[in-house]
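Try this one yourself first.
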């Protein structure tokens, strides 16, 4: 069984990004409200920006502001040629229209890949989805003509992944996390799960030689675990991403990988 090490791959990508982003403009991030998890994630993104040499600016708004004010600032940055990428840290507080805010970003500056046009197959994938694709490519796991089953219909991951993988030759099925049966898993060559439920499936539910990309994050007896019963599936799977250390470390670096793509496209 092969462990698909996201931490190691993220470090390798970070080294490449230092060279690729030398001509990048600024990266503009938006925080609406004061969600502690969002603040932590943005701190990690700011640290990564410093590591790869990108100017990172954070725009903060409180619940006293409104959707129109956030959108107006995004539109201002859309027109600024010194700005290469824009992202909005989700979720936003109740009372703000997240769809309107995110879709105010020009697709050419949508580093997080969350606008409707990006989700439908734009310049970049959402960062977590891009991280999954980078893992598959790095470890030479082909998906063309393979049966790929995605668990959990999430806008940040499985929605764009299902579109991308189908377009690039995979035979895709998407299961809701509360489905009554996981019979589909037994025929899956690749399983990508983001259901948010610990021990959702085990070795008995998969076929021998399956690849499991586990993007689930759950607390179980004080430990961070994925959706798959890791100690069970490793006895039967060909390769598995660990939790932590698999998809998670790839998310932040993939955001800047997307930025590099946008910078390259803008320069053509």
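Now uncover the answer:
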């Amino acid at each position: 069984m092969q462990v698909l090490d996201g931490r190691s791959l993220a470090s390798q990508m970070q080294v490449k990004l230092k060279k690729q982003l030398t001509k990048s403009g600024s990266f503009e991030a938006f925080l609406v409200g004061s969600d502690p998890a969002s603040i932590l994630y943005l701190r990690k993104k700011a640290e990564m920006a410093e590591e790869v040499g990108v100017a990172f600016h954070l725009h903060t708004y409180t619940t006293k502001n409104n959707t129109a004010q956030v959108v107006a600032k995004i539109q201002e940055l859309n027109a600024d040629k010194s700005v290469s990428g824009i992202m909005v840290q989700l979720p936003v507080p109740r009372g703000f229209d997240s769809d309107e805010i995110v879709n105010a970003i020009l697709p050419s500056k949508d580093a997080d890949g969350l606008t409707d046009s990006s989700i439908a197959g734009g310049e970049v994938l959402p960062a977590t989805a891009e991280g999954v694709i980078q893992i598959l490519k790095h470890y030479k796991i082909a998906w063309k003509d393979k049966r790929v089953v995605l668990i959990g219909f999430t806008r940040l991951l499985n929605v764009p992944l299902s579109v991308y993988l189908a377009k690039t030759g995979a035979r895709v099925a998407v299961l809701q996390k509360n489905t009554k049966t996981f019979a589909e898993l037994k025929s899956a060559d690749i399983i990508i799960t983001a259901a948010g439920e610990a021990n959702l499936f085990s070795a008995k539910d998969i076929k021998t030689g399956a690849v499991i990309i586990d993007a689930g994050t759950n607390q179980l007896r004080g430990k961070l675990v994925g959706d798959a019963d890791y100690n069970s599936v490793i006895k039967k799977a060909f390769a598995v991403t660990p939790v932590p250390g698999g998809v998670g470390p790839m998310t932040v670096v993939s955001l800047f990988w997307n930025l590099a793509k946008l910078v390259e496209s803008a320069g053509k």
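Discussion: The chain has a mean pLDDT of 94. Residues 147 and 153 are 17 Å apart (CA to CA).
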